[in-house]
Each structure stands twice: as structure tokens, then as C-alpha cells.
Specification:
This protein is an alpha+beta fold. It folds into 2 domains: about 120 residues, Ribosomal protein L10, N-terminal RNA-binding domain (Alpha-Beta Plaits, 2-Layer Sandwich), CATH 3.30.70; about 45 residues. It is about 60% helix and about 20% strand. Strands 2-3-1-4-5 form a 5-stranded antiparallel sheet, sandwiched between helices. The longest helix has about 40 residues. This is Large ribosomal subunit protein uL10.
């Protein structure tokens, strides 16, 4: 890797750190190319990114960002999963690590808060941003639906009473 490639890599990683809602640091313990490709596909489908990076370049890129506190996590063969949604990258990596023992979760960060492996696993259990939006919309719509039901209920009862009288008179 020549000097210009290193500069490009540092610039890319700095951009990732500046835009990410959460970053997950993993350690590759001998994954095959097929396993690595499967992980990258799953991460990409979740709207996140996964990059294997040199530790020295990742440390340089993290300096001056909110993720500066996790510099100590960059040891060994490191992979970086990041996403704007704080939960997306963590969910995919934790799910993949459950089925593949060659991927170890080292830790990560959510903004300036550094998380250990257990923190990342806890983050993965939280609902995603889209799920939270759906729940919020459901909560907002529920009162309006109930009001609509209450306002139409008396008219419906009245219509049933008239229908009962009509049936009685017809019989």
C-alpha cells in the first residue's frame, strides 16, 4: 500500500466515523472468503458498511472524531462495521457472529460512548430506527382511531335499533 492509497483509506475511514451513528469493531479469526462475502452482503442489505482496515490507519482516522475513545480496540485483524442507524450494524454483526465462531465482536462505540462486546450485543437487541418510527406512528394513530370509533358508535347503535323495530313491525 503506497502513500496515496493510505491517505485515501484514512480519508474514507474518517468519513465513515463522521457519518456513523454507531461503529462495531470485529476481529477476524480465520474467516473464509465466502464467509466474509456473506457478512458484507448482509451488512450492505441492512444499510451499513463493513471495511477491513489496517489498525494504524484506523487509529489515525478515528483521531479528531467522536469515536476517538475506541482507538484501543484496534488490535489484531480488525473489521469495522458502521451505520447511520445506531442499531443496524450491531444487529447484523451480532446475528452473523452467532452462526460463525470465526468472527469475534471486540466492542465499538455509539458516538463518544465506547461499548464493550456485551454493550454491542445489548445494542443489537434494541429496535431499529424504522421499527421505532412505526411504533410511534401507531401510537399517534391509535387515539384518532378510537375517537372515530366512538363518534360513529352512537349512530350505528341507533341504526340497529331502527332496524330491529322495522323487523318487529314486518313480523
Amino acid at each position: 500500500m503506497d502513500r496515496s492509497q493510505k491517505a485515501e483509506s484514512v480519508a474514507f475511514l474518517t468519513e465513515v466515523f463522521n457519518e456513523a451513528g454507531a461503529v462495531v469493531i470485529t476481529r477476524n479469526l480465520g474467516m473464509t472468503v465466502a464467509q466474509s462475502t456473506a457478512l458484507r452482503i448482509k451488512v450492505r442489505e441492512a444499510g451499513a458498511s463493513f471495511k477491513v482496515a489496517k489498525n494504524s490507519l484506523a487509529k489515525i482516522a478515528a483521531k479528531g472524531t467522536a469515536y476517538e475513545g475506541m482507538i484501543d480496540l484496534f488490535t489484531g485483524p480488525t473489521g469495522i462495521a458502521a451505520s447511520a442507524d445506531p442499531v443496524a450494524a450491531a444487529k447484523v454483526v451480532v446475528d452473523f457472529a452467532k452462526t460463525n465462531d470465526k468472527l469475534e465482536i471486540v466492542g465499538g462505540a455509539m458516538g463518544s460512548v465506547v461499548l464493550n462486546a456485551d454493550g454491542i450485543k445489548a445494542l443489537a437487541t434494541m429496535p431499529s430506527l424504522d421499527e421505532m418510527r412505526a411504533k410511534l406512528i401507531g401510537l399517534i394513530q391509535a387515539p384518532a382511531t378510537k375517537i372515530a370509533q366512538l363518534t360513529t358508535a352512537p349512530a350505528a347503535k341507533l341504526a340497529r335499533v331502527f332496524a330491529a323495530y322495522a323487523e318487529k313491525d314486518a313480523a
